[in-house]
Specification:
Bound molecules: adenosine-5'-diphosphate, magnesium ion
Number of helices: 23
Number of strands: 20
Distance between the termini: 27 Å
């Protein structure tokens, strides 16, 4: 395979456009992409036609508007390029109108009440800032999905708006700091994706994995991840073949998958792409998850993207690496070489610090889901408390700035910002704190709380918006300032002083941190129902409206959708549990106790003088377990039924799911796991952890 020919071969990217579009059209489209200028319909027509010809040459027969409804996965509705012509026959057609706007029959996507029935259709609108691509013989056109009233029904629309917000505010700052040439600022994102690969035959024997993506039962195996022998260990040949094919498929789609290695847990791996714009990175991450699942099936694997597929084994997350860069090639979180660059770096750095401190709630909400709640705070992923890690070096610099004192790094220095050069801040220092939810890693921040199965859209919407909002305040102050340099310095000092409580360089997994965080006044929101109410507070509505990212109505719809989704996930899990307990687990325990009873009776008959003590004891334990499991099964059933009697308030329902349904599920699981550990394994109805977590 020739990488140069493969990479992006199925993408209608800039190179293809430049080569195939008339010069004028290319320039107009490029202006739209690079500067956000609106596109005129004639240009769209020419682009559509060229896109169609290119796609047909590549073997495509259909096209689809590819979009990301609030379900978190992607949706497509395929249409053929063929248009019938009068007198029979057909021609291949694809108009500018069809490129720019689609009307999927999308009334069953969640809208949180945003779409009244009369406007139930919603429409999709072409997003020219993410390239079209061919997947399975279909030209996929990345699109936003809105109601006729213009309300966002998807994840892309707010992301694009938040990029705009960030662009507006950063440009104001850069103009003041001597970069009038910057036309566009984009958030850059590189999401590292964790996942599990398990054998597909074993997977298909477990209804819990099939229906819910995680194991609802499973006794601890004798060997788990205790030995840490999987981390960065050798790849098994079958896994290596899977990775190679994933890479190749992703490269064709222009996704620059780069590194893959084993993670901490057995059967766990990670894929990291090279960063790109937050919009494209979000689309690419959706594609990555889809391709990984598909290629896994081809290689006899199931790819698990659930945040917590196995109890007692590390779960999977997504590390959202984030920075800002300009069309002139500056990474705004790159510590500079000159005093002026350093002042600028420090200003953006403290802006992020302030943003994270002020909006812990929104960052927590952006990663809230039933699946991710298992992971956050489980001593394997950052806690539900949001804090930041800066590292010793940067911390020392900020301390020095705050106290106007000299920073000692081999030599004494005067820490007047804008006058001196900062000492070099080492990138990728090896002792990076991997327990921190939001870590500075040399020239970017790494938000480590997102869950493995989620879209990264929300996390980036929040980061972009909160940073834009802080920069808006900074820009207001700087624009009114007489002495810009002195004002920058004051802003940096004041911001560190006022927001340093959010910085925590210690061990986030430690129990003491919870106490300390509380003393610092930081939020601790362990579950989704704890976090979601913050989404619709007056301050947050005002923030999102001010930055033109969400309207009040849109926020309320998302609040409903997210809570409903939480309830749905837990209900599906609970129903799956009942099903497995009734049809598989109780019969298995019954069968085994039958065997034990028969054995005991046989022995008694053959050896009347020996009491079958062991069988009796075991039988008693098994009978006790069946009784208890039966009772807990009923209790779980009742807890699900009780949902129907609750008011239609999504928060009340979500709390019930957490406090009642989920609690019962855990109790039931504990009993079933105990049974698994004593029942004859030949009778146990599905493969256990030991088998699942050993890839051959
Ligand atoms: P790790 O955390 O595993 O050590 P690396 O430092 O190798 O990871 O890279 C992490 C991710 O950060 C990669 O996906 C990389 O492309 C991304 N990244 C690097 N620079 C930036 C940047 N300026 N903006 C956004 N993402 C970036
Ligand atoms: Mg990482």
């Amino acid at each position: 395979m020739n990488l140069q020919d493969t990479f992006g071969s199925l993408v209608f990217n800039d190179a293809v456009m430049r080569q195939r579009l008339p010069k004028e059209t290319y320039r107009a489209l490029h202006r739209t992409i690079a500067e956000g200028k609106s596109l005129n319909p004639q240009v769209a027509s020419v682009v559509a036609n060229t896109m169609k010809d290119w796609a047909i040459e590549k073997g495509a027969t259909h096209y689809t508007h590819w979009f990301q409804p609030m379900t978190g996965i992607t949706a497509e509705k395929h249409d053929s390029f063929l248009s019938p012509i009068e007198g029979g026959g057909a021609i291949m057609e694809f108009s500018g109108k069809e490129l720019v706007r689609g009307e999927p029959d999308a009334s069953s996507f969640p809208s949180g009440g945003l779409r009244a029935t009369f406007e139930a259709r919603g429409y999709t609108a072409w997003d020219p800032t993410s390239y079209a691509f061919i997947k399975d013989g279909t030209l996929c056109i990345p699109t936003a999905f809105c109601s006729w009233g213009g309300q966002a029904l998807d994840k892309k629309t707010p992301l694009l708006r938040s990029n705009e917000a960030l662009n507006r505010q950063v440009k104001r700052i850069l103009r003041l700091l001597g970069h009038p040439d910057v036309k566009k600022v984009t958030a850059t994102v590189g999401p590292e994706q964790e996942y599990f690969l398990i054998d597909r035959d074993l997977y298909s024997k477990r209804k819990d994995l099939i229906f819910t993506g995680r194991t609802l039962f499973g006794a601890r195996p004798p060997k788990g991840q205790e030995l840490d022998d999987h981390y960065f260990g050798n790849l098994k040949p079958r896994v290596a073949a899977f990775m190679r094919e994933v890479d190749e498929e992703l490269w064709k789609l222009g996704v620059s998958a780069k590194t893959e290695h084993n993670e901490v847990a057995p059967c766990q791996h990670e894929l990291a792409p090279i960063f790109t714009t937050s919009n494209i990175a979000t689309d690419h991450n959706q594609l990555t998850m889809e391709i990984m699942k598909r290629v896994a099936a081809k290689h006899g694997f199931a790819c698990l993207l659930h945040e917590k597929p196995f109890a007692g084994v590390n779960g999977s997350g997504k590390h959202n690496n984030w920075s800002m860069s300009t069309d002139t090639g500056l990474n705004l979180l790159e510590p500079g070489e000159t005093p002026a660059e350093n002042a600028q770096f420090l200003l953006f750095l403290v802006a992020v610090i302030k943003a994270v401190d002020l909006h812990q709630d929104l960052l927590r909400i952006s990663v809230a889901s039933a699946g991710n709640d298992h992971r956050l705070g489980g001593n394997e992923a950052p806690p539900a408390i949001i804090s930041m890690f800066l590292g010793d070096e940067l911390q020392a610099i900020l301390d020095a700035i705050e106290h106007h004192s000299a920073y000692i790094a081999g030599e004494k220095m005067d820490m007047n910002i804008g006058v001196t050069t900062l000492p070099r801040i080492p990138k990728d220092t090896t002792d990076r704190n991997r327990t921190s939810p939001f870590a500075f890693t040399g020239n970017k921040f790494e938000f480590r709380s997102p869950g493995a199965s989620m879209s990264i859209a929300e996390a980036n919407v929040v980061i972009n918006t909160i940073v834009a909002d802080v920069l808006m305040g900074f820009a207001d102050q700087l624009e009114a300032a007489v002495d810009i340099r002195a004002t920058v310095e004051q802003l940096v000092v004041d911001t560190i002083t006022n927001h340093k409580r959010i910085i925590f360089n210690g061990n986030n997994y430690a129990e003491e941190w919870k106490k300390e965080a509380q003393e610092r006044g930081l939020l601790n929101l362990p579950s989704t129902p704890d976090a979601l109410p913050y989404l619709i507070t007056d301050e947050n509505v005002a923030l999102f409206e001010r930055q033109r990212v969400y309207t009040r109505q849109e926020l309320h719809s998302r609040y409903d959708v997210q809570l409903e989704n939480y309830c749905k996930v837990i209900s599906i899990e609970a129903h799956t549990m009942l099903d497995i307990v009734n049809k598989e687990i109780i019969p298995a325990i019954s069968a085994y106790s039958g065997n034990v009873a028969r054995d005991g009776a046989d022995k008694r008959r053959l050896l009347p003088d020996v009491e079958p003590v062991y069988e009796q004891k075991l039988l008693r334990r098994l009978t006790g377990l069946i009784n208890e499991i039966g009772a807990h099964n009923e209790a779980l059933h009742e807890a699900i039924q009780a949902l129907d009697d609750l008011p239609a308030d999504p928060l009340a329902q979500a709390r019930h799911c957490r406090d009642c349904v989920f609690k019962r599920m855990q109790e039931l699981r504990a009993l079933a796991d105990e049974a698994e550990s004593i029942v004859d394994e030949k009778l146990w109805p599905f493969p256990g952890y030991g088998e699942l977590l050993t890839t051959k």
